[in-house]
């Protein structure tokens, strides 16, 4: 027989239960934020040191500024002398860095989007093998190809030119770009394209007006990664650019630390901070698109 519990007993039992402490509910959050704070604290301290050192005339114990000065930022209005030589203008290096990064982004997105669409939609001989070798091509480190790239650029007359390094960097980046964009194209239903074709649009018009707007998050993410990759490029520019007219900010920084005995850490900190500012601003205004990169996960071949 079923046993019925009197309402008075149920109310009494509920009142006698001990409520869960709010601190126990928040404990996992405290642990998570504590671990996150501890792991990120060294990075935050390094950025704080970089900022203080760029404005400090002297640092006591290596991290306490004694006095502040703008002398470390003199590279903004005059050419800096370092190690007995006069460095090129920082604005020349900045212009070359922007030119290299923006052109790389345009070429990489243009070629990568077309290649990704072809891999996703068009059946052609060797398609499966090409997709399997795409990531293998990207896996080759650029340092392993330096000698071959040097001979090719020298033969074509593109050594010591930004355009030559730009072609090499684009070729190395396109396989991964095409693979990422292919994942976004895979998520676009075939019915959308067929509907446009039935309405009388050409294949090109369907691609431009219907398909591309649907993968805007993918194009934005690839553009951001391409720009950051070009802005932070050092090895290829250092190896194949020798004239000061084609110097970039990464090579400019290398000149400041070329001799360990003559490093001016105040100047180095200021130039490093100047080098970081465009990237920080770029990330602030594009972080929403970066967060949407997961929208185009790669499907199976």
Explain how this protein is built.
- It is a single chain.
- By secondary structure, the protein is mainly alpha-helical.
- It folds into 2 domains: 2-69, no CATH class; 75-296, MetI-like fold (Orthogonal Bundle).
- The protein has 12 helices and 4 strands.
- The longest helix is centred in the N-terminal third of the chain and has 34 residues, at 22-55.
Distance between the termini: 62 Å
The name of the CATH superfamily of the largest domain reads MetI-like
**What would CATH call the class of the largest domain?**
Mainly Alpha
- Shape call: globular
Helical/strand content category:
mainly alpha
The main sheet orders its strands as 1-2
CATH architecture of the largest domain: Orthogonal Bundle
Q: How much helicity do the residues have?
A: 55-70%
Total strands: the figure is 4
Short recap of the structure:
The chain has 301 residues and is mainly α. Helices cover 67% and strands 5% of the residues.
Essential attributes:
MetI-like fold, two-stranded antiparallel ribbon, 5% strand, 12 helices, 301 residues, disordered C terminus, two-stranded antiparallel sheet, mainly alpha, 2 domains
Structural topology:
Layout: H1 7-16, H2 22-55, E1 56-60, E2 64-68, E3 81-82, E4 85-86, H3 90-121, H4 127-139, H5 146-156, H6 162-186, H7 190-198, H8 203-214, H9 216-231, H10 235-240, H11 249-256, H12 265-291
Helix pairs in contact: 2-12, 3-6, 3-9, 3-11, 4-6, 6-9, 7-8, 9-12, 11-12
